[in-house]
Amino acid sequence: MARLVKQVSIESPSHKLKDCIFSFETPMPDTPPAGARVKVRNAGVCYRLRSASSSSSIKSVEALHCGSPLHSCVRDTALFPGYEVAGTVDALGEEVGETDLQLGDRVIVYPYEGHPPGYAEYIAVPEVQYLIKIPDDMSLSVAAMLPSGALWAMNTVFSAHIHVEKVLAEKGETGHCKILLVGTGGLALWAMRIARFYWPEKRERININVACLRDEGISIAQEYLKVNVVQWNEDLYEEQLVERTKDACGGPVDIVIDFSATSRSIRRALKCLAPGGVMLMSSEHAQGLITRFGPVAEKENHQLVPIEFGTLNQLRNLVHLVSTGEIEPPPHTIFSADQANEALAKIGRGLIPGRAILEFPEDDEESEE
């Protein structure tokens, strides 16, 4: 009989489902011939969404069924599938050729298409190219923040750089580029740190402002970001919020980076953009939103730019920069896998500055229980 291992499913909440978090046992995944099996230590409660609708959420543990052929997993309605995974190499496939990976190596998993859920003690990775070794002086909890959120933030900064250079060139040597960053969660914290590393010589000419979506975000932005902050208080009328944002930014902004990308935030941000301005958003949100707001954007010559999650090489570079201290990771809070309910509740109330990281026990810790 196959060994059973622990897995956590964080499902989309609904009125039919009292609890949206399930902990259960599932068979140990087989090791892919050209890949590896990873013993998960930490997994970030991350941003990347499934493409499936959340309207058909599970009603019980018995309703779970297999997803990826590599791994017994939950339905595609999982709200946070666990694309940020750090752990150790447990097994290598028999067809793996020359590689610098060895059993026990500490690794993170690149969020490739078809990535299995990371909220499990073990996951199967189809090819070893998706595994990146991490230095001994980097904790696995910090490493778990890199594969999805931090990588997306890095690629967003890289993509924004092209537009920043264009704005500064058009405005001359004394001109400024005004950027509005929507949101104060882990993505915004990463983006600020990465931007400050890559744009040091132009920092005086780049004005970054942050729009807080909730009251708790103000202290986070002021303490960790040290930037101008405008509160998007939903009790105010829309036009009041737009005017408040323009006043805080010193006028219309040139670039908006919207990590939340809701219809409301995009509609509001477009009203804050200067003619010819650019809005950057996740490629996973982009298709429907661009179709909806594209005609509105065209009237002011605005660009709506989708941003992909980033490449393997970018992730390797990010690991190096964080491990050498050139980019400081945002704060994070570790929860055991059994505390997933508590983690999600605190995230919902804005009580976690930075990121929430789930942690599975080591084998020796399990044996003591």
UniProtKB/TrEMBL annotation:
Q: What GO annotations for molecular function exist for this entry?
A: metal ion binding; oxidoreductase activity
Q: Where is the Enoyl reductase (ER) domain?
A: 15-358
Q: Check the record and name the Pfam families matching this protein.
A: ADH_N (PF08240), ADH_zinc_N_2 (PF13602)
PANTHER family reported for this sequence: L-THREONINE 3-DEHYDROGENASE
**Domain of life of the source:** Eukaryota
Decide whether keyword Nuclease is in the record. no
Q: What is this protein called?
A: Enoyl reductase (ER) domain-containing protein
Q: Which SMART domains match?
A: PKS_ER
**Can you name the source organism?**
Cherax quadricarinatus
Which terms are listed as keywords in the entry? Metal-binding, Oxidoreductase, Zinc
